[in-house]
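Re: [help] complex structure
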Amino acid sequence: MTNLTGFNFIAGTSSAQGSTTFASFNPRTRTAGDVQFHNATAEEIDRAVTAAAEAFEITRDYSTAKRADFLDAVATEIEALGDELLQTADWETALGLPRLTGERGRTTGQLRAFANLLREGSYVGAIIDTALPDRQPAPRPDIRRMLLPIGVVGVFSASNFPFAFAVCGGDTASAWAAGCPVVVKGHPGHPATSELFAGAVHKAIEKCGFPTGWFSLIQGNTVEVGQTLVRHPKLDAVGFTGSLRAGRAIYDTAAKRERPIPVYAEMGSINPVVILPGAVSARAESLAEGLVGSVTLGAGQFCTNPGLILMLKSAETEAFIGLVRDKMAAREPGVLLNEQIGSGLEKAVSATLGRGRVEKLTGGEVASGEGCRYTNTVLQTTSAAFIADSALQTEHFGPVTLFVMCDSTADLEAAVQALHGNLTATIHAENNELETAGKIFNLLREKVGRLLWNGFPTGVEVVYSMQHGGPYPATTAPATTSVGMTAIQRFLRPVAFQNMPDALMPPALQNANPLGIWRIVDGETTK
Amino acid sequence: MTNLTGFNFIAGTSSAQGSTTFASFNPRTRTAGDVQFHNATAEEIDRAVTAAAEAFEITRDYSTAKRADFLDAVATEIEALGDELLQTADWETALGLPRLTGERGRTTGQLRAFANLLREGSYVGAIIDTALPDRQPAPRPDIRRMLLPIGVVGVFSASNFPFAFAVCGGDTASAWAAGCPVVVKGHPGHPATSELFAGAVHKAIEKCGFPTGWFSLIQGNTVEVGQTLVRHPKLDAVGFTGSLRAGRAIYDTAAKRERPIPVYAEMGSINPVVILPGAVSARAESLAEGLVGSVTLGAGQFCTNPGLILMLKSAETEAFIGLVRDKMAAREPGVLLNEQIGSGLEKAVSATLGRGRVEKLTGGEVASGEGCRYTNTVLQTTSAAFIADSALQTEHFGPVTLFVMCDSTADLEAAVQALHGNLTATIHAENNELETAGKIFNLLREKVGRLLWNGFPTGVEVVYSMQHGGPYPATTAPATTSVGMTAIQRFLRPVAFQNMPDALMPPALQNANPLGIWRIVDGETTK
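Output below.
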């Protein structure tokens, strides 16, 4: 890890005013890195947000084409970081080079996908109602509405996606695409990776002639750094991916501001999977294999990890659970991202087992040997216990899943109705079970942002139609997504122009439709 | 006012468990009505929200056509209330029959406009990305996304629009259109009017075969009634129109819930008007007349009342202000909605005058004679004072406006940059002032939801393109509107369906596009 400074990156300049520092940590070897990273001070955070607000004065008038070029430039600069980026992130997260290579592709891919969205241009949702000068009793004015950037955005990196939900991840890409300057709070689990990204962004900013305040990276391993950012009077919105505890704390702080701001916090979930009897009969082996693969993928450290499996009690179900248990036990436990996640997981599983009426089928302990690891864990309880105790809906962030045994379809439906908000829900069923499946889907629909049929929830496609969100506690903003093209909507707000001279209006609303975008004009969708 | 009961209307039944009551109040005669209205109890509120949640289990599967028919039926039943509705509201609000007749048309008009939006159907924002079975390294699944209703909505009626922002007003209409059952907290300023509306809704529910829990009306003149509603665990979102104090209290309560819910509060604003010198030279008389008409319309009790006028200092400006002052003084002060608004206005103007550096040009006192009235008031200050003291941005809810004198265009721009969030901003200018106007518009754009050119902000058109919202403190949700067709988006949330059998998917997402709506399919906008 050559050339790392451990400095914050504030509007184009390196800065290390803070006296407290922290280091990278290799979870495979439990060793610390050489470089000391400086916690950002209140003064540095103020400098970052103020510079962002000043940059916004300039960049909010940039064309969508100019922003698109910038997003492409960032993708190019990320690729130019080459193997050093992959190796640095692997050292800090133990996610492995194949996964990180894929995640880098996803990260540059979504930057370019947003660039294409901007070039197409219809995302501004232009709506035009032309004047009715002869209307009685008074003429109707000409009114035109479009979406414009909300302002300065603070982004909190996630631990589990050091590329795709981090410095240049989905939140940052969608905020930039919307036209918003970004101040990123780097995750303390991969500060060196964050610093490399900051260098890439800096090059793209210089290449594209953007003001330096368009981007800053603040580092920190304290709650205070993030809270100071959220409290800054010039911040206009927050994107966050992480734990319920941290996300809720940020939401609460933002709500208490003199001027409250929106917090788009994606806080994970337990992603219920309902398996109907026909699916077990038809394909127990492949189903068990797929499920175990999904639960243990990335050592279970995915927001969409299937942490809850609801089934109808039967001999076949028992055999299936045995199969899952054996496959889980047979897999080598993966290395966790860091020690905090390891100790958090240990605590969460102990707490669940401590509720009573939860049986441990395998795992449930720290794995022996080198590295931060936790045994692949299978737990089991009854629908009655699950319904009675909402603590059993706590996320275990790791390779853990909980089977819930239901005596009847009615019990199963009751368990589904007791669910809190989740990112996803899945049903496995055969075609002769469509009626039961449909009814359960209909109940699950109210609980989640994405419903899957005969699939596994991990592996979130970055497509226009993706919905990665859901009712609380999955997120603090169920009407939004943090993945996919509509993620841009979080950082836009509508503005209407009434009787405005054509020359003063943004191109998206001008009579000639110079951008050639889709618009709703007097109720008709038209180009 | 015959046949009034003073009861709450809970899911199809009348209920009066509460021991505390209040009466209507006629602001013209300062007399109380005969009927005692019962404050809703916690048990009644629980019954209303629980019934709404139960109704949602059924109604969320209703077709958009069925909901459209219901909205039309409500409009018809409101019209069937005939003169009694107008007279009752006039007695309670003193708004006058012509205004109330117009407002009734707007209210039934927006119900029918939402019905048409549902029949057209594209509001669900359907996005489809079809499968790529041959993609490497893994196939891409079929993913389809649409907007679905968020759940049970609580609506707080406004005092100043007893029809259009009340029991069957824009919040309720858009929530129903979205597919959400509604519990309305009636405004204590017009409880009899609210009760008449509840009867009309009840008839529409019976006619259309909706479950009774689809609508409830709770009455109350205490903070507790509203707070109990917002705290109810089964409530999913809140629509509110009213004061900053009340709106913020509701927002704070919702944010502190175990499961926070969105609060769409429209809390009014001071609606800055910038008048450039050319406009004064060209049309002082008509400009002054229009401005005074806008400030005094409805006794100034509009969220879009132009309460702040920014001008460049000159002899012509001084003459113009004199003209406005004289016209304001010459107009008969209108009757205010109720005594609370009168005393609030008195307090607000006194507080503004007490800041120092604010001069009273006319008015500034309770009007003599019968009825709750306040003199038409013109205040004046300097840009320096305005920029230095943010308390001068407090809304005066009544016929009051404040001139801000700027020594230069730079001062004017600084004053604009100091503005808090507002619903609207207006510029009056001539065509040879486009450059200056454009620069100021560009600054104002960041502060408001709607920009007007050579117009007056009162008179909010109910059209697709309307944006009635803005940055805090104008609202708690700057990305949304409470007027116009896109108001429906507040009560919707996206759900994605992955690899779902066609038969299990909502019609909006099925292959055949049976609803014939606009959809984005593999990136192409298509029917």
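The mean pLDDT of chain A is 97.
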